[in-house]
Design brief:
single chain; 252 residues; alpha/beta; Rossmann fold; 8-stranded mixed beta sheet; 10 helices; 19% strand; globular
């Protein structure tokens, strides 16, 4: 476990935290995290993961930057409009922390593509904004035996949850057993407040760090769905268990 002088300075505030220290920072340096989506949730999430020193970060997003994105996606600027999100994201994240290894794919998160890709990562973050992508990411994590950190924001409310299906826990289909792949609208139809996406992305990033460092004190067979209301500031926590009839777990 060796750090350069630059790394020691960069991560000095992390290393001072008793639950992290130098050994914990080295653990983060060895971690591989895949982020699906580089928009309202994904952009600030990527910034947090890369600045925290996650050793390898991958990102998938097929979209082009639009002017309407800039209200909540601070990774991009006006001059970036018309460029691919993943291309700009890699540029900015490299400037933020050149010690981190980055990979990108400017494509849709299809089931067949995800099923192979998630196996190359330790943790997967779902930062998409539609049910088809969320189900595809969750299914791939079940099949690939990977922990999934999933988040969503609509208007002034948001939620996040950590799924550990390989440890007997539920998946996204267990949480929403009757959800159809095309049954949810995205931000362009429903609207979203910029600070809300940053807050939920922060919770997701913190969840990733806790998972990497083994700081998450919970029953692996029970996920916690955190529901946050930006209007009142209140948060609720709901326990989620496997849905008995979930098709993804019939062979377990």
């Amino acid at each position: 476990m060796q750090f350069s002088e630059e790394e020691l300075e960069r991560y000095s505030r992390h290393i001072l935290v008793p639950d992290i220290g130098a050994s914990g920072q080295d653990t983060l340096r060895q971690a591989k995290v895949l982020v699906v989506g580089a928009g309202g949730l994904g952009a600030p999430l990527l910034q947090q993961l890369v600045s925290s020193g996650i050793g390898h970060v991958g990102v998938i997003d097929p979209d082009i930057i639009e002017l309407s994105n800039l209200q909540r996606q601070a990774l991009y600027v006006t001059a970036d409009v018309g460029r691919r999100k993943v291309d700009v994201a890699i540029e900015r994240l490299t400037q933020l922390n050149p010690t981190v290894s980055l990979s990108s794919w400017p494509c849709k998160a299809t089931p067949s593509f995800l099923e192979h890709l998630v196996r190359d990562y330790d943790y997967v973050c779902d930062a998409t904004d539609n049910s088809a992508a969320r189900l595809a990411v969750s299914d791939a994590c079940v099949k690939g035996k990977r922990t999934l950190i999933s988040g969503a924001v609509q208007g002034l409310v948001g939620q996040y949850v950590v799924f550990r299906p390989h440890n007997g826990g539920p998946c996204y289909r267990c949480l929403y057993p009757h959800l159809e792949a095309d049954s949810s609208a995205g931000c362009s139809q429903l609207g979203v407040i910029g600070p809300a996406t940053t807050i939920i992305a922060g919770f997701m990033a913190l969840s990733v760090l806790k998972e990497c460092l083994g700081l998450e004190e919970t029953d692996p067979e029970v996920s916690k769905l955190f529901l946050w209301d930006g209007l009142t500031g209140k948060q609720r926590v709901l326990p989620i268990k496997r849905f008995d009839d979930c098709l993804l777990h019939q062979d377990d």
